[in-house]
Amino acid sequence: MARTVDDGRRGKGIYCCFCGKRQDQVRRLFSGLDDTYICDECVNICSDILDEEFYDDEELDRPADTKGLDINLLKPAEIKQFLDEYVIGQEDAKKILSVAVYNHYKRVLSLNESDVELQKSNIL
Fold this sequence. Notes:
It is a single chain. Helix content is about 35%, strand content about 10%. The chain has two domains: about 5-60, no CATH class; about 65-124, no CATH class. The radius of gyration is 26 Å and the shape is rod-shaped. The longest helix is centred in the last third of the chain and has 19 residues, at about 90-110. The chain has helices at about 40-55, 75-85, 90-110; strands at about 5, 10-15, 30, 35-40. It is α+β, with helices and mostly antiparallel strands.
């Protein structure tokens, strides 16, 4: 049975189990098990709380703001030259990997700069 609240004016209605707001006071109610409901506002608050806790615990996983960083992005030819010092043969693989690594870091560094999205590619 749905949890309802009697507001004295409109009779009974569906409400958020967290904040108690009625269905007509919020944009959307999401139903859970046993006819419990949570409103969109409470979902947003919970999401913010989880984000804060997650980023405090996992500081390394937080998206970095790369605008102030001085990162030396090597060109694909320079990456291949570095690989030549450690890998014998495999010329095609070294070229493909060098370009893929360059594109990856170019995409990572450009996340905050514009709305243009650089497409990922599968090198395998």
